[in-house]
Amino acid sequence: MSKTLKAPIPEGPLAEKWNNYKAKARLVSPNNRKQLEVIVVGTGLAGASAAASLAEMGYNVKSFCFQDSPRRAHSVAAQGGVNAAKNYKNDGDSVYRMFYDTLKGGDFRSREANTYRLAECSASLIDQAVAQGVPFGREYGGYLRNRSFGGVQVSRTFYARGQTGQQLLLGSYQALLRQQHTGKVKLYARHEMLDVVIIDGRARGIIARNLDTGEIERHGAHTVVLATGGFGKIYYLSTLAMGCNASAIWRAHKKGAYMANPSWTQIHPTSLPQSGEHQSKLTLMSESLRNDGRIWVPKDKNETRAPGEIPEDDRDYYLERKYPSFGNLAPRDISSRAAKEQIDLGKGVGPLKNAVYLDFSRAINEYGKDVIAERYGNLFTMYKKITGIDAYKEPMKISPAAHFSMGGLWVDYELMTTVPGLFAIGEANFSDHGANRLGANSLLQACVDGYFILPYTLQNYLADQIKIPKIEVDHPAFEESEKLVKDQMQSFLSCKGKKTAEEFHKELGKELYDKCGLLRTKNGLEKAIENIRNLREEYKTNLLVPGSAEEVNSELEKAGRVADYMELAELMCVDALHREESCGAHFRAEFQTEDGEARRDDENFCYSAAWEWTGNASQPILNREPLVFDTVKPTVRSYK
Amino acid sequence: MIFIKNSVTRKNLMAITGLFLSFFLIIHLLGNLQLLLPAAEAQLQYNSYSHLLGGNIVIKLVSYVLYLCILLHSIDAIYLSFKKRRANGTSYSYDRRGRASSWYSRNMMALGIIIFVFLVIHFKDFWYHYKFGELPVDTNGNKDLYTIVVVAFEQLWYVVLYIVAILALGYHLLHGVFSAHRTMGIYHPMYNRIINIVGKSFAVIITIGYIIIPLFLYFNLQS
Amino acid sequence: MKITLKIWRQRDCQSKGEFKEYHLDKVSKDMSFLEMLDTLNIKLIKQGDLPVEFDHDCREGICGQCGVMINGIAHGPLKNTTTCQLHMRSFNDGDTIYVEPFKASAFPIVRDLKVNRSALDHIITSGGYVSVDTGQAPEANSIPVTFEQAEAAFDAAACIGCGACVASCKNSSAALFTSAKISHLAQLPQGDKETSTRVVSMVNQMEEEGFGHCTNTEACEVECPEGISVLNIARMNYEYNRSRLMKK
């Protein structure tokens, strides 16, 4: 029953599509907007900017987040910057070039029109953020400063020190709270969405749990927007926040929204390695370190000497060796994979042999310690804080870590999922990055979706909803969803097994990282699927959750999230197994060129895989959205 | 109404009254330094100075402002300490927050109470006595406050009390003067540095100045 | 190493709380403080006890959700470090560590070490923003902001909203938090236009939330993980006084 999906793309040449859409999209008159309610789940950059923008237009918005304040959402942690095709540097940047870089960076696996729109709206985002008071880096004369970032040849990245995400998020958080002040936004912090309620085929509300009291609440609205971010935390060890989860999108998936390309996860090359079994997360070190640091491993896998004592001849600068033109600055997916290759050969360093060296000794000799301290001082301090090691004296140890989900809920050009009235924006959807995301594009996508796209497309949807009265929450659909949620929590609590949700999560994460991480093979994935199924069975009988459902209970929250991960993990493996090609972050060992690079198969796999829930986690249905390239011609992505 | 109850407003009142009182300390000290003159000369000059102050209408008005300042400064302090208690709620069971600030900045209220108690004694012994008590007159016909002061400082316990109070005042000023400027809104780093230095020097000079007098009188008479 | 923990346990804001003692034997120096608490929680759950509830999310020192009093100091002994970035190598074998929640009447305890800091959000809601709707913004380079201005604004804007300033203040004042936002926006031409209305509503809101007054002890700056300067408080006072004195 596999279907072919089409996302209705507006008419006209690529550069005109979004304008054409906007010109023809339906509107809701200001008087009618106040009759309509919108639920936005998540208060990161996408969620907060969407909620604020919609409230400014006059809609009544209910905004939910599981953190104790909207300002905590994980967008806050993004370091590097945000791209925009402003061409302030006069170095040949343009909307088209940015579009092309993004498409190529994603290994030609994203939808042309969406990617173009992302580049097109990027300039307005910078204007908006500056007007909100985001303190972007400036030149002495007062104009905005840019820097370059991996995978491109122009300087189009705007940044606010190493805390661009924080500053952008505070901008949209403040915009959101400004609307709370006007009364157009109602904020529900410490509320976790547990189900989407569907009435007559349309999303009409959510079930949420008040995490402070345990109370299950019903919230109705004319439309529901999910801005709940990525699910890289499924690998347990990741650069994501502890609370990041897939539950919102997974439960939407189980209510009929398709999941697209779930296995495409970006593994970031420069994170701190795991130091022991106790570890709960991996801290990202900014990618900018690779500008001056050289990556190497010892040539001999039985090396026991301290890094400083290993002579040059016994070191393997493998990135410089394999990619002479990009060297240590090869794109993220490529450098991560190369690191894994060395670690798998047994050449990893550190007590767990799970890292590679990032060495600054040459840069320190060349420019002096002061210059290096000026460039990366804060990162060196952070490194010392976490590891206790002085990186001016000894090379850093870094290793790859799960970072960003290119996959997510399938959405059409309007960012609507396959459930009418259910939208997904930001990292929660799959749309713009293809099989690999370029640095500094994630903040951009989240903001652009929330500020500039959703306000138009959501309105187009709501135009014929104005006759629908306020959604009452005593509808049987709400009752049914609430019962489902409560029953699930009861089943966790009454299981009384021996293992905590966290322990299950660690096991699952390790399985997934080993077999569905940087390098995937048919055998490995088949084995992983089997193991995940077993683990899922064990989860049903051996889970230990203390306390009750009617109180603060963070273990119960975790149990629900891990239960969803257990199902999603299998789908990720299924997705990775079915895609018999290598593209971007998805690298199948069987499909590589002679010199070990990804071999794409445009003939058979030039599509997005949108998986449909059937009621059984092991039997998803594959639907395909063919990717049509009218304007560009996919080429081989080479960084040699 | 919230404007009046507002802590920034209340702190401004605290700052203004505090700074006025600090200014008074200078005048008061300059007057009292006359006590350091040779005994005979000091007696006449000090008494005539006291007489002058008592008779001048401007000084009288200023002294009313002064009393008002003392009163407002104290009432405000009491109000703010209630507010503080309300804001704090339950206290910590294990508290080492003190590492981050100086003890005197945290204990302005306690220092203030010492100063206030001292002021009451000070007023009673000298001011009240001078105004309403029966005093002998000196050769110029002025009330002989000088002798009262000198006699008072013959007693060791009185000297000790005086010094303790002045030290409390010194620490109160050490934090108070610069804090008052912050409260009133001086945020420029350079001026803050200047005020910090000036404020601390002021506190030290005032403390030394006020402590010299009782010591001088006490030891001078002993020998 | 071996660690003795005395952790504040409290069911909710109405109940009475107390220190409970726990012992951990195999604490690694490389563990973060929160990972040490994770280890304790797994142990407690397996014993059939309720785990210690504490707030945390990003665990890289930027989201501001974590924050407890460790040995009587907000975020523990290390300077400019959040609780999540504190590692066990800052402690010695055999140490006893006291862990308490941030306490202030504006931060009611939710459970154990979890407190409700939405009072800080309310202060922002009252005026901590630039009133610009999506789409109204002019071209970004049309208003130059000098390098120094932008850097100074950033220094104030770096606040992560963890509430350590309130917890460290003897008067439970939120002056540092509130002033950081006022100062951030007042130093940029985009935000300065509303300064005088903003400062009055934010200061009033700070009062209504039940925070105490500032006595310039400067403890907040010392304990702030981001090192936000107390001069921001002076600036807030300045803007407040100016706004009041210039009121028409």
From TrEMBL, chain A:
Record GO terms (molecular function): electron transfer activity; flavin adenine dinucleotide binding; succinate dehydrogenase (quinone) activity
InterPro entries recorded: FAD-dep_OxRdtase_2_FAD-bd, FAD/NAD-bd_sf, Fum_R/Succ_DH_flav-like_C_sf, Fum_Rdtase/Succ_DH_flav-like_C, SdhA/FrdA/AprA, Succ_DH/Fum_Rdt_flav_su, Succ_DH/fumarate_Rdtase_cat_sf
EC annotation from Swiss-Prot or TrEMBL: 1.3.5.1
Transmembrane intervals: none
Enzyme category, top tier: oxidoreductase
Gene3D superfamilies reported in the protein's UniProt record: FAD/NAD(P)-binding domain, Fumarate reductase/succinate dehydrogenase flavoprotein-like, C-terminal domain, Succinate dehydrogenase/fumarate reductase flavoprotein, catalytic domain
Known cofactor(s): FAD
Gene Ontology BP terms: anaerobic respiration
Principal location listed in the UniProt entry: membrane
Annotated keywords: Cell membrane, Electron transport, FAD, Flavoprotein, Membrane, Oxidoreductase, Transport
All copies of domain FAD-dependent oxidoreductase 2 FAD-binding, residue ranges: 38-443
Alphabetical list of SUPFAM superfamilies matching this protein: FAD/NAD(P)-binding domain (SSF51905), Succinate dehydrogenase/fumarate reductase flavoprotein C-terminal domain (SSF46977), Succinate dehydrogenase/fumarate reductase flavoprotein, catalytic domain (SSF56425)
GO (cellular component) term, any one: plasma membrane
Membrane topology: Peripheral membrane protein
Highest rank taxon of the organism: Bacteria
Catalytic reactions of this protein: a quinone + succinate = fumarate + a quinol
Active site: 332
Subcellular localization: Cell membrane
PANTHER family with a match to the protein in the record: SUCCINATE DEHYDROGENASE 2 FLAVOPROTEIN SUBUNIT, SUCCINATE DEHYDROGENASE FLAVOPROTEIN SUBUNIT
Similarity remark: Belongs to the FAD-dependent oxidoreductase 2 family. FRD/SDH subfamily.
Name recorded for this polypeptide: succinate dehydrogenase
Source species: Salinimicrobium profundisediminis
UniProtKB/TrEMBL annotation, chain B:
Protein name: Succinate dehydrogenase cytochrome b subunit
Annotated NCBIfam families: sdhC_b558_fam
UniProt cross-references to InterPro entries, sorted A to Z: Cytochrome_b-558, SQR/QFR_C/D
Gene3D superfamilies: Fumarate reductase/succinate dehydrogenase, transmembrane subunit
Keyword annotations from UniProtKB, A to Z: Membrane, Transmembrane, Transmembrane helix
CDD domains in the record: SQR_TypeB_2_TM
One Gene Ontology CC term in the entry: membrane
Transmembrane spans: 12-37, 57-82, 103-123, 156-174, 194-219
TrEMBL record, chain C:
PROSITE patterns with a match to the protein in the record: 2FE2S_FER_1, 4FE4S_FER_2
GO biological process terms on file: aerobic respiration; respiratory electron transport chain
Domain 4Fe-4S ferredoxin-type, chain residue ranges per copy: 150-179
Source species, domain of life: Bacteria
Known cofactor(s): [3Fe-4S] cluster; [2Fe-2S] cluster
Gene3D superfamilies xref list: 3.10.20.30, Alpha-helical ferredoxin
GO terms assigned for molecular function: 2 iron, 2 sulfur cluster binding; electron transfer activity
Family, similarity comment: Belongs to the succinate dehydrogenase/fumarate reductase iron-sulfur protein family.
Protein name: Succinate dehydrogenase/fumarate reductase iron-sulfur subunit
Organism from which the protein derives: Salinimicrobium profundisediminis
